[in-house]
């Protein structure tokens, strides 16, 4: 049975190569290609694909944020993240958010394609070096998936009202998350929160 796939990658050349490689396998139908995270969320909501393959670093919303939204709007979609050299903390956030597979961009194309086939079949594909880094680093400050989502939105310079609109909650709820983030991180200002989060690899600006 063929599987539907959404690809999110802001580099057109890389996206085209991934589309071609998956197309040659004869088991995937590419139902949409997004150039940024916002487009990716919209495509996943519209198409409810079997699989979504996301670049971690994208404009608009990064791969982690898209993963969290995918879990909300299309929980059956299997999600894989393709990334360069992320921090162990961000890898930990991906695992905590329920990612189905993580692939490093320096992996051989056949390795990535085989891994995506395995994910589509219901398996988890987390490379040993990634799993080891996650175990060593932990997930950072014990943040929840929603707090991580709010943290990344704050890093993009969004106001409480803008974040609330994007997440479907009130600005007051966002402010509560912001306060909790500061308490967990041991800081007293948004600027200090972002400096510490960047230092600890919790955000990738």
UniProtKB/TrEMBL annotation:
Keywords: DNA-binding, Phosphoprotein, Transcription, Transcription regulation
A biological process term (GO) from this entry: phosphorelay signal transduction system
Alphabetical list of SMART domains matching this protein: HTH_LUXR, REC
Entry-linked Pfam families: GerE, Response_reg
Domain of life: Bacteria
MF terms in GO: DNA binding
Gene3D superfamilies cross-referenced by the UniProt entry: 3.40.50.2300
Annotated HTH luxR-type domain residues: 136-201
Residues with the 4-aspartylphosphate modification: 55
Stretches assigned to the Response regulatory domain: 4-120
Name of the featured protein: LuxR family two component transcriptional regulator
Native source organism of the sequence: Albidovulum denitrificans
């Amino acid at each position: 049975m063929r599987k539907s796939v959404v690809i999110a990658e802001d580099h057109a050349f890389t996206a085209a190569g991934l589309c071609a490689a998956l197309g040659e396998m004869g088991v995937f139908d590419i139902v949409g290609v997004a150039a940024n995270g916002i487009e990716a969320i919209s495509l996943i909501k519209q198409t409810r694909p079997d699989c979504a393959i996301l670049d971690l670093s994208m404009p608009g919303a990064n791969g982690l944020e898209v993963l969290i939204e995918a879990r909300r709007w299309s929980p059956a979609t299997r999600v894989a993240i393709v990334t360069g050299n992320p921090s162990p903390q961000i890898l930990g956030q991906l695992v905590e958010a329920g990612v189905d597979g993580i692939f490093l961009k320096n992996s051989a194309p056949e390795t990535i394609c085989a891994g995506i086939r395995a994910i589509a079949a219901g398996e988890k594909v987390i490379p040993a070096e990634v799993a080891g880094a996650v175990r060593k680093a932990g997930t950072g400050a014990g943040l929840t998936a929603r707090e991580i989502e709010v943290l990344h939105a704050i890093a993009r310079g969004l106001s409480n009202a803008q974040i609330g609109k994007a997440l479907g909650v009130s600005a007051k709820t966002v402010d509560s998350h912001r306060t909790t983030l500061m308490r967990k991180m041991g800081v007293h200002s948004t600027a200090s929160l972002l400096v510490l989060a960047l230092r600890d690899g919790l955000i990738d600006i």
